[in-house]
Amino acid sequence: MSQSPGDLLDKLRAETPLVQCITNYVAMSVTANVLLAAGASPAMVADAEEAGEFARIAGALTVNIGTLSKPMLEGARAAIDGAHSVGRPWVLDPVACQATAFRARASADLSGLKPAIIRANASEILSLAGEASQGQGVDGRDGVDAAEEAARRLARDTGAVIAVTGREDYVTNGARALRIGGGSHWMTLNTAMGCALTGLCGAFAAVAEDPFDATVGALALFGVAGTRTHESASGPGGFGWRFIDTLHGVMPAALDYEAEISEAGTIAA
Amino acid sequence: MSQSPGDLLDKLRAETPLVQCITNYVAMSVTANVLLAAGASPAMVADAEEAGEFARIAGALTVNIGTLSKPMLEGARAAIDGAHSVGRPWVLDPVACQATAFRARASADLSGLKPAIIRANASEILSLAGEASQGQGVDGRDGVDAAEEAARRLARDTGAVIAVTGREDYVTNGARALRIGGGSHWMTLNTAMGCALTGLCGAFAAVAEDPFDATVGALALFGVAGTRTHESASGPGGFGWRFIDTLHGVMPAALDYEAEISEAGTIAA
Amino acid sequence: MSQSPGDLLDKLRAETPLVQCITNYVAMSVTANVLLAAGASPAMVADAEEAGEFARIAGALTVNIGTLSKPMLEGARAAIDGAHSVGRPWVLDPVACQATAFRARASADLSGLKPAIIRANASEILSLAGEASQGQGVDGRDGVDAAEEAARRLARDTGAVIAVTGREDYVTNGARALRIGGGSHWMTLNTAMGCALTGLCGAFAAVAEDPFDATVGALALFGVAGTRTHESASGPGGFGWRFIDTLHGVMPAALDYEAEISEAGTIAA
C-alpha cells in the first residue's frame, strides 16, 4: 500500500532523518535550508576520506554533479558504497549531463550504481537515456513530455524511479507513472531550486518504504509550496525566502489535499 | 577589567577588523553577511598557498571544518601558523567532530594548536573532550548542561575559551563561567547560523583584550539579535534576512542593556 | 554606433545568453541569482576537465579569483583558451590582488590573457597597474578617482575595458571614459555584490558588439537597481532580496532613462 505525500511529510518531521547531500557549491545553502524547513537534517559531507563512513549513519544520500570534479566523484563513489552497505537509498541529479563529455561519462557511470531515484530536467533525462536533447549548457530546453518515453526506459534500465521535472513533473518507475503539478514561474529564476528538490527527494526517501512514493511526496510538497508562494511574491528574490517559510508551514493533511497528482496513463508491459 | 559586549561592538564598528574565515561551503555567504552586518571585514582566504601570508595581516582567524578536506586542513594549518607568528587569536569550530574518524582526528589536532576560542554545540564539546555524545551526524542532541564539565576541562587542557552554544549558551575559560541567553527557535532552521557565530567570535576576538570577553560579546550580540528578530519572523526564511538587518541595527548601549548574561556558578580550583 | 544599456538589456532578455562563471564560493549563489534576474543563464563550470569544452558553447566567461587555488586557476586557463578559440569575450575580477603574492601573480598572469573587461575596485586596479594601494585584505580603501590614471594605462596595456567600481564607477577603454552613478550604501554590506556585477558584465558582453558598451550597460543596470532598492530597504538583509526583485523588474527604456552616465573628460592621445 502506498504512502501519501502527507503520510511521508508527517514521518519526516517525526524522524528528522539525516540526509547526506553531495551537491554543488551554488546549491549547498539553499538545499540545506529547504531540508531544514521540511523537517530533515542535512549534512554536506563529500570528501572521500569520510563520505563512505558518514553514509553508513545517514538515512539517505543525494549526489548532484553541478560543480563536478574528480575529488567530488571519488567522494560520491565512496558514499554510494557506504549507502549500499547499509541498505539506504541514494538519489542522482545529473546536472547538465548533456553539456560536456566529463558530465556525460560521470552521469552514465553513476546511473549504473543503482540509484533509487534520478531527478533531472527533460534535457538531462533524454541525454542520460542516450537520446538527442536541446539543452543549452545547464538549461533544459526540452519539454517534460518529450522525455517521458526516455524516462520509462531509463527506469527499466537503471531500476531507479525517474522524476522529470519542469512545468508539470512526470514520475515513473517503469511500470507506473504519475504527473505532479504546481509550482511557480519564479522557481526557474531562483538558482538551484532543482538541486534543492533533489535533496528533498533524499529526505523523503529516507522515511519511505518505496522510492516511488518518496519522489511523488517530495515533488508534491515542492509543487504545493511553490503554488502557495507564487501569490505573495513579486519577484524571484522575495519568492526565495517566502518559499522556505511556506514549505515549513505546509501541514501533512493540507499537502494531501492540495497536491496536484494525476495518473499519466497505463504503461504497456 | 573586562570589556562589555557593547564596548567591543563599538570598537568593532570603529576598527572594521579584517577577519580571515576558513569555513565550509554552506556557511561562507551567511558568515560573510553576518560579519559585514556586525561591522567587520570578512575574507574567505583558505588555500595553503596564501592562507599563512594572509593571516599575518588579519585581525583574527576562524577555522570551521564543516566541509573538511585535506587541502582545507593544510590551509588551516598554514593560517594558524601565520596568526600565531603575529600574535593574533584564532577560533576553532569542530563541526560534527563526533561523526567520523577524519573529523575526530582533525579536531583533536587543531584543538592542540592553541586556539583562543572553541565554539561548538554540546555534542561536539563532549566528543572533543573524549566523552560519549548523542550527536547524530551534524546535529547536536545533547543539552548544553550535559557538556559543562567537559567544557571546563577542555578549557584547562587547551587554554582556549570554550563556548557551548544551544538554547542557553555556556562560556568558560576554566576559571570563570557565564551563561548567555536569547536567540530564537528559527535559528536552528537556518543553516550555518552556528558557523556564522564562530565568525563573529573571530570578529570580536580581533578587537578584544581577552578572548573570554570576545566570546561573551559575540554570543550576546547573536542572542539579542535573535530575540529581537523572533518577534517579526513567521518562518525560517523571513527570519534569515531580518536577522541580518537586526544585527546591523543593534546599538552598543542597547546590546549591554538587552544582553542576557548570568553567572554560571563558581568553579572549584 | 554604440548600444545603450537598454538596448543591451533588451537583447539579453531576448537571447538568454549562457554565461560561464568561474567564481568564488561566497559569490556563486548571489551571482547566479543576479544573472537569472537580469535574464541570462549562468553556469558555474570551473573544473579543468571540462571548463574549456564548456567555454566553447558559452556566450561569455567570467573569472573571479576570490577563493583562489591552483585547480581553480587551471580551470580558468582552460576556459579562457576555450573562449578565445570561439571568439567569445571573458571578464576578469582580480579580487584582493594586492593582498598576497599568490593573488598578485595570478592576476598579473590572467590580465595578460586578453580579457575583454577587467572589473575591480580602485585598490585592485592600482595594484594590477603596479602602483601602491591602500587596500586592506579584500577591502578597497582607495577612492575611484585615485585609480583613474592607472585604469587608463591598464586599458592600453591589456587591451581590456577597465571598470573601477565604487561610490561612482569609472569605465575606460584607454581612449574613452565614462562615469556611472547610482547604487546604495547597503551594497557594500552585502557580500559578493562586486563579484555578481562581474558576472553581469559577462552577461552583457555576451550580447554586445563592444565590451565598452557591455560594461557601461551592466554597471548602469546595477546602479539603477541599487538606487531604486535603496528606498525600500532598512538593512543589508532586506536590501539583498529586494535588489534581486528590482533588478528583475527594470525595463530597458527605464534603464536608459534612469541610468546615471556622464562623460569623464577627454583622454589625451
Question: What is the residue-mean pLDDT of chain A, rounded to a whole number?
Answer: 96
Structural class of chain A: alpha/beta
What is the CATH third-level topology name of chain A? Answer: UDP-N-acetylmuramoyl-L-alanine:D-glutamate ligase
- CATH-defined superfamily of chain A: Ribokinase
Write down the secondary-structure element order of chain A: HEHEHEHEHEHHEEEHHHHE
Portion of residues in beta strands of chain A equals 5-15%
Overall number of strands of chain A: 9
Biggest interface, residues from each chain: A-B, 33 and 32 residues
Count of discrete structural domains of chain A: 1
For the largest beta-sheet of chain A, the strand count, sense and barrel status come to: 9 strands, mixed
Number of H- or I-type helical stretches of chain A: 11
Rg of chain A (C-alpha, Å): 17 Å
